Amino acid sequence: MLEAIIAILDIKIFVFMILGTMGGIIAGALPGFSATMAVALIVPFTFTMDPVIGLATLGAIYTGAIYGGCYSAILVNTPGTPSSIGTTFDGYPMTKNGRGEEALHTATFASAGGGIVGVLVLIFLSIPLAKIALKFGPPEYFWMGIFGLTIIATLSSKSILKGVAGGVFGLLVSMVGVAPIGGDVRFTMGITQFQGGVEILSVLIGFFCIPEMLRIAGDLDQNKLEDVKVEKQTGVIKKALLNTFQKPMNFIKSSIIGAFVGVLPGAGGNIANLVAYNEAQRSSDDPDSFGTGNPAGVVATESSNNATVGASMVPLLTLGIPGSPTAAILYGALMIQGLRPGPELFTTNSHITYGFMFALLIAQFLILIIGLGVGKSLYTAVTLIPERVLVPSVLLLTILGSYAIRNNVMDVIVMFVSGLIAYTLKEFGFQAGPIVLGLILGPIAEKGFVQGYLMGKASGESLMIFFTRPISIVLILITIISASWPLIRIIKEKKRKGAEIS
Amino acid sequence: MKRNTDLYGGIFMILVSLLFFTKLKNLTIYSKIFPIAIIAILTILGIALILKSVMKPSLSEIFVLGNKKNVILVVLVTLAWVLLFKKIGFVVTSFLSLSILLCVLNNNRDIKAYMKTFIIAGCQIGILYLIFSKILYVPFPRGIFF
Fold first, then answer.
1. Are A176 and A186 in contact (CB under 8 A)?
2. What's the rounded Cα separation, in Å, for the pair A171 and A419?
3. What would you measure as the largest C-alpha separation in chain B, in angstroms?
4. Between chains, do B65 and A218 touch, taking CB under 8 Å as contact?
5. What whole-number distance in Å separates Cα of residue A419 and Cα of residue A216?
6. Which residue in chain A is spatially nearest to B86 when comparing CA positions?
7. Spatial distance between the Cα atoms of A191 and A250, rounded to a whole number of angstroms
8. Can you tell me the distance from the alpha carbon of A106 to that of A91, in angstroms, rounded to the nearest whole number?
């Protein structure tokens, strides 16, 4: 761990992290430009970097983007990212009441504080979890893959059937290339470049960037942001500090909610901010003031959404299961650095893993400094970016990025075709998240299944090996709970609606 | 007009399953055991979507855009960009594609706007080319031009 701290205390890392945080804030403040897109576009720039610098930069972008969403939420009532939806409820009324600057600074303190809680959860939870994960064999990895796939149901808020179908489609596409156990070359459709499999990062860039750019090109000026003149207030930093920490229960509770939701695969800042807001309003002495410009609402949403950033890395780093679309991109980033996400990160590459964790911690302080210093100016810069320039510029980055991964034109074609498929499927009601999860978890589940089957055959247990090992049994139980959770939620919702009608 | 997206989704999934199914022959058992299971599940899900499209269809308008012409042009220009940049060269193709896209998406069609477009395109490509080739050491295809 000491080695990691030394590795992170490098001026080069700080420079990249400052740029990353600023870039993230700009991306987060742009409606329609998600944190996932920002990270996906920058990954190819990082793979020739030292792994610690590359991952620290990506962590800073992710943190900055989740925080940056609050600017457009507070100033123009348009959440920059889904994680800031709840911030509009009280942030925008504060701006209308002439307290915009106070709202922005309150969001900054809450975001940084919540982010620190999230990273502490990551540090203290991941080490024991990784120790357990080191005991995993092929049957356990098979069940981990299946458990990861159950997240699809959580991600498919609109249609579980389409979510599952999308996930299985992703699984099938992941099988293109050399079979992990049999060794046959399969499903290449006659394209020799597919023998090594479909380049996952190209697909991720295409899936998350192309559909959004086509949508913006079709509706130019739909998300046009306007600069807002914020009235100057005296002693605003002190007020913001008091808003956040004078009654610390709201901040602590919201950060813990954010961290808890973040650890759960499938759930992220978009859910955490609304849960925390509801809880803050429910437990408040003055619930009626929520929605009219109560800073406690801003504290709840912003501390919770930033707490999810660090916490969402727990399943990725310890088990190799990306629990969110952004974690899926970071999965790809780790892979191109030659690092295998999972417990091995804590043994063979511990200095990189701990370095990444400390970088996430530093990123929280950076959003505090940058947010209080030049945050509003960054937002003004965002309002100057015309969408007619943004679309071609992002397309240029997608092409450059997907080419740079392996210097292969086929990866660029794969990126663009994946983007068109994702755009079409989105129109049919299929979300990118489940498909991407299937794509990543496919090889883990397949390798675990075939290796486990061979192990079972050798020991005379056959398929029973998947059901008799203690960790497998625990994973099966977790998988069953996870898979049935959306159904339980639907039944509960129906019961609640029934009770309301009667 | 509202479309039955379940039906389209179901047909897409069945077609994908069929395509992968036809590629199963000649594979050894360990290479095809898992894909067979996945193809079967995807076929079942495709059928379930088609059945749902009959019993409880999910109707929604698709490809609703303010300016469809823009989207089609963006797709075509990007496609040409992707397919030609190795043959013609990264810098030339990207400059042309970026300029065309900037012009297509811009309502102003005067000389000043065109000049601005070329400057923006040139600056972006110049900066990114320098970052990738001089800092990240990623060689770009030069093609017949540059």
1. yes
2. 17
3. 65
4. yes
5. 14
6. A409
7. 56
8. 9
Residue in chain B closest to A45 (alpha carbons) equals B136
Find the helix packing angle between A325-336 and A432-459, rounded to 10°. 60
pLDDT of residue A155 exceeding 70, the answer is no
Sign of CA dihedral A439, A444, A447, A453: negative
Structure tokens at B43: 């076929």
Tokens of A465: 């090996």
Which one of B7, B30, B59, B86 would you mutate to disrupt binding with A, by most A Cβ within 10 Å of its Cβ?
B30
Burial call B67-93: b when 16+ CB within 10 Å, e when fewer: eeebbebbbebbeebbeebbebbbbbb
Average model confidence (pLDDT) for chain A?
88
Sign of the torsion formed by the C-alpha atoms of A226, A227, A233 and A239: positive
Q: What is the value of ipTM here, to two decimals?
A: 0.92
Total residues found in chain B within this entry: 146
Residue identified by tokens 């807001």 is A277
Smallest CA–CA distance, residue A269 to chain B, in Å, is 28
Specify the pLDDT at position A78. Answer: 84
Q: Contact A32/A394 with Cβ under 8 angstroms? A: no
Only one residue has tokens 């943190």, namely: A63
Cβ of B33 within 8 Å of Cβ of A450? The answer is: yes
Q: How far is B130 from chain A (nearest CA, A)?
A: 12
Per-residue confidence (pLDDT) for residue A234, from 0 to 100: 80
Nearest to B58 among A159, A393, A453 (CB): A159
Tell me: the pLDDT tens digits for B85-103? Answer: 888 988 899 999 999 999 8
d(CA A349, CA A103): 41
A169 min Cα distance to partner chain B (Å): 7
Percent pLDDT > 90 in chain A is 46
For residue range A322-369, what is the model confidence (pLDDT) as tens digits? 877 888 899 989 988 888 888 888 888 888 899 999 999 999 999 999
- What's A92-122 look like in SS3? HHHHHCCCHHHHHHHHHHHHHHHHHHHHHHH
Coil, strand or helix at A32: coil
Over residues A34-63, the mean pLDDT reads 90
Task: Count CA atoms closer than 13 A to A375's CA, side-chain side.
Answer: 32
The answer to whether A122 and A360 are in contact (CB under 8 A) is yes
Give every CB contact of residue B27 below 8 A, 6+ residues apart in sequence: A179, A182, A184, A186, B35
Structure-token match 């509003």, residue found: A376
Q: Measured between beta carbons, which residues in chain B are less than 8 angstroms from residue A217? A: 67, 70-71, 74, 105
Judging contacts by C-beta atoms under 8 Å, the chain B residues touching residue A413 are 82-83
